[in-house]
Structure formats: C-alpha cells, structure tokens
C-alpha cells in the first residue's frame, strides 16, 4: 500500500510540472521521411541549377538571382561526330577493326544503297556501283512487285561479323514515290556476305514461305559459333516474326510469328523533343494514326550467343529468348518447335522509350536506343535494370548501333541519327529534316562481341 501511495504522489508531481511548462511543440513536429540512406545512383546526371534569363522572370528583384533546378539534356561520355551525310539519309552502320565504316540507305531514287565512308562528308558505293545498280526496280510482268536479282535493291542493314567480314541485308523492296514499298519477289530479299576487298562469298535467298511479298526484314545479327546462324527481324505489321538462317546450309525458317512480343502497340504515341508524334501519312486515306507501323525491329545477341534480344519499334518493351529455341527448325521432326519457342520468350519490362537499334558488347551489356529521350541506355542482365549511358540533344533519332574494337586502339559505339520522325512518311509528305544527317561515336568500356 505504501508503494502505491508513493507512485500516485510522484505521478501528481510530474503531471503538475508538465502543466506548468510552456508548450512549444507543433502538430507538424514529426519527421517527414525516415533517416536518409545512400540514394540510388545516376539520379541527377542531367540536373543542374542556374538563374533564369531576365526575360523569363517577373520584375520582382527577389527572383533575379535565384538558382533554379533544370535539365541540362546531357550525360555520359563525350559524343564525337565522325561523319555527316549530305546526300542520302542513313540507317545501317558497321565498322571493321581497321576502322573502315560501312553504311546503308533505304532506297528510293538513291543511286546506291550500300556504301563505304570515304571522307568525313562523302560516301562511295560498296563494293561498286554496278552491284548497286539492278536492271530494274519494277516487275513489268507483275505490277506492284519488285524483281529477283543478284544486284542490291534496298539494303536496310549492314554489319561486320567477328571475322571482319561485311554482311548486307537486302530487303528486296524499293520505295516508290518516297513512301510505298513495292512487294518483294522471291530472289529479291537476300543476305549477302562480302570480304573487305569487295568479293562476295555468299548470297542467301529465302523461300516465299519464309520471306513473303509484304515482309519487311529490318536488321541482322550473325553468330559464327557451330554451323553459324543469322537472325533477322521481320518488322512487317502484317506478319511480324523472326527469320533464322543456318549459314552453313542456307536454309531458313520463321519463329515467333505474331507473338505478342514482336507485334506493335497499336495506341503508341511517341514523343520527340517533348512533342507528341502521330503519323500523318501522305497517301490515301490520309488518316492520322498512332505511331504503330513497325513491329519487331531492333535486335542484339548476347556476348555468349545464348540470348537473342529484340524489341518492336512501335512499343516500349524489351524481350529476349534463348537462341537454342530459335535454332530448331519447325518440321515433322520437331513438331513442337514453334510452341516451345513461343513459351520461351522472356519479357524484360518497360524501357521508357521505344527503341530502334540494339547492340551488345563483350561485357554483357545490351545497348538500347532511346529516340524519345535523345539518348542511348543499356540493359544490364546481371541486375535486370536499365542504366543511363549517353544523352545529348544532338542525338536526334538514334537508328542503328555498332560496336567496334579498333586495331589502332579504343572501343567505340557508333550510331546513325536520321531524324526519322520528321521524314515525309510521318509529316503529311513534307520533309522536316535538316541536313546533314549524322553518325556519331562514343567510347565504351567493353569491346566488340565477336560471337565466334
């Protein structure tokens, strides 16, 4: 009983003391955030502060010298201009170990479609003008179709393989009136291999069941391991898929036809330099649409050749599939090959921008163009995360990527910029692009993934 009385006496004293003390607390006196820890990396790469120009503030002098947070538009390694295109607009780029640069042009009335850079501002046909001059573009016996020819019709992509040889992908569908791709005839679409001296060492054509008249082959990746395989995305929205070629036998087959991973996002609205971009086609019915024309487009092989990475141009998601599934030719011997390949696709998630070109290096990184951010990012398979790599306002629609390890020193990522969203196909027939188009390079830590 004595302890109870003592306790209540002490409580009364404390209560009285608390009542007598002044209350300086506030309803807002609590921590808004938990104690700070190490922030995630790279979050302020493009951030800075500076006073605003005089014409962008009110007349109050209190605002005159305030430093306001802003986006610099830049991060990453220095961007070096290596070539300016004053004639034709480029898509492909490939660089050999001795520094020779090869490039390709989608052909309308361009006099050549596969070229080598010979000065900082000019290109010459590769291997020569004759190879770049087909006997005709239109099939007189089958209107609306192109022709079958060993000559080059429209080279969409060019790559240099691990043996320093050049591979050119001829879509076989020339552009007419600047916008319409003619239908392909068997023998028009082809994969051609050249030695650096210009001699042709192989020409692989495709049966109509593999590359149809309205197919739109877009890129190439070459794996020289084993028999050797080539992987070619078909970006046609009518028949999206992946064409696989056995380089030893010349046989080819398709996988992932109309799989969700290779198809367009029908309601995609892309943003370039902050402006929403719709397609305003200059042909009937002149209907404005979302940016939804291009299916699977950018592709890359992992450095060990075990994974094939791919992305539709008209989407913002990255996918991959083990190449072991793609190498199986669907047939009576392998009747489940298509089902198993479809089930093996891995969705790697949203990328924040649609992507045109992909590329790998020997460190395992997968470089991703980000036309909506004037940037190139990279996917890190070890963490499953996308990392910032380089961003610059001059990177106006990065199209194709190529990693080169040069004999005279240095590893570089080369890329073309062609301002594609400003071309007549999308701007109601008006060309809003500004020449010259550009080829840049940036230094990288890794080297070329040779896939040998």
Please give the structural blueprint.
Blueprint: H1 2-20, E1 47-50, E2 68-71, E3 80-85, E4 93-95, E5 101-104, E6 114-117, E7 123-125, E8 155-160, E9 166-170, E10 175-176, E11 180-181, E12 190-194, E13 200-205, E14 221-223, E15 229-234, E16 241-246, E17 252-255, E18 270-272, E19 275-277, E20 296-301, E21 307-312, E22 317-322, H2 323-326, H3 337-344, E23 346-350, E24 358-360, E25 366-370, E26 375-380, E27 385-391, E28 398-405, E29 411-417, E30 437-443
Antiparallel strand pairs: 1-2, 3-30, 4-5, 5-6, 6-7, 8-9, 9-12, 10-11, 12-13, 14-15, 15-16, 16-17, 18-19, 20-21, 21-22, 22-23, 24-25, 25-26, 26-27, 28-29, 29-30
Walkthrough of the structure:
- With 452 residues, the chain is mainly beta.
- The protein is built from 3 helices and 30 strands.
- The strands form 9 sheets. Strands 3-30-29-28 form a 4-stranded antiparallel sheet, with no helix packed on it. Strands 4-5-6-7 form a 4-stranded antiparallel sheet, with no helix packed on it. A 4-stranded antiparallel sheet has the order 8-9-12-13, with no helix packed on it.
- Strand 26 and strand 27 form a beta hairpin.
- The radius of gyration is 28 Å and the shape is globular.
- The mean pLDDT is 93.
């Amino acid at each position: 009983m004595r302890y109870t009385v003592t306790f209540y006496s002490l409580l009364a004293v404390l209560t009285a003391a608390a009542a007598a003390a002044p209350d300086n607390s506030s309803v807002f006196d609590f921590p808004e955030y938990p104690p700070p820890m190490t922030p995630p990396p790279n979050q302020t790469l493009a951030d800075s502060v500076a006073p605003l120009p005089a014409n962008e503030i009110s007349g109050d002098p209190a605002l005159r010298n305030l430093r306001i947070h802003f986006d610099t538009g830049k991060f990453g390694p220095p961007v070096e201009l290596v070539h300016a295109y004053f004639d034709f607009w480029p898509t492909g780029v490939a660089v050999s170990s001795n520094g020779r640069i090869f490039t390709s042009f989608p052909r309308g009335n361009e006099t050549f479609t596969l070229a080598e850079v010979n000065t900082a501002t000019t290109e010459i046909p590769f291997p020569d003008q004759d190879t770049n001059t087909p006997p005709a573009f239109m099939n007189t016996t089958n209107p609306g179709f192109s022709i079958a020819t060993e000559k080059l019709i429209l080279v969409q992509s060019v790559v240099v393989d691990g043996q320093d040889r050049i591979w050119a992908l001829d879509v076989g569908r020339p552009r007419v009136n600047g916008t319409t791709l003619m239908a392909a005839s068997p023998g028009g679409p082809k994969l051609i291999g050249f030695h650096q001296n210009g001699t042709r060492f192989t020409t692989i054509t495709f049966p109509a069941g593999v590359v149809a008249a309205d197919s739109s082959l877009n890129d190439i990746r070459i794996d020289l391991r084993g028999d050797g395989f080539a992987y070619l995305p078909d970006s046609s929205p009518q028949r999206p898929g992946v064409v696989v070629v056995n380089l030893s036998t010349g046989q080819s087959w398709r996988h992932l036809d109309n799989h969700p991973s290779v198809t367009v996002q029908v309601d995609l609205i892309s943003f370039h330099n902050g402006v929403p971009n719709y397609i305003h086609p200059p042909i009937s019915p002149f209907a404005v649409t979302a940016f939804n024309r291009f299916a699977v487009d950018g592709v890359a092989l992992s450095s060990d050749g075990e994974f094939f990475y791919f992305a539709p141009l008209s989407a913002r998601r990255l996918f991959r599939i083990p190449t072991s599934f793609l190498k199986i030719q669907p047939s009576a011997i392998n009747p489940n090959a298509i089902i198993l390949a479809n089930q093996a696709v891995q969705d790697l998630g949203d990328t924040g921008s649609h992507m045109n070109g992909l590329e790998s290096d020997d460190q395992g990184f997968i470089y991703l163009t980000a036309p909506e951010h004037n940037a190139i990012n990279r996917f890190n398979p070890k963490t499953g995360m996308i990392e910032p790599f380089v961003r610059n306002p001059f990177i106006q629609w990065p199209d194709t990527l190529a990693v080169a390890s040069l004999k005279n020193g240095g590893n570089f990522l080369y890329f073309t910029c062609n301002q594609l969203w400003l071309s007549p196909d999308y701007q109601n027939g008006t060309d809003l692009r500004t020449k010259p188009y550009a080829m840049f390079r940036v230094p990288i830590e890794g080297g070329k993934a040779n896939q040998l």
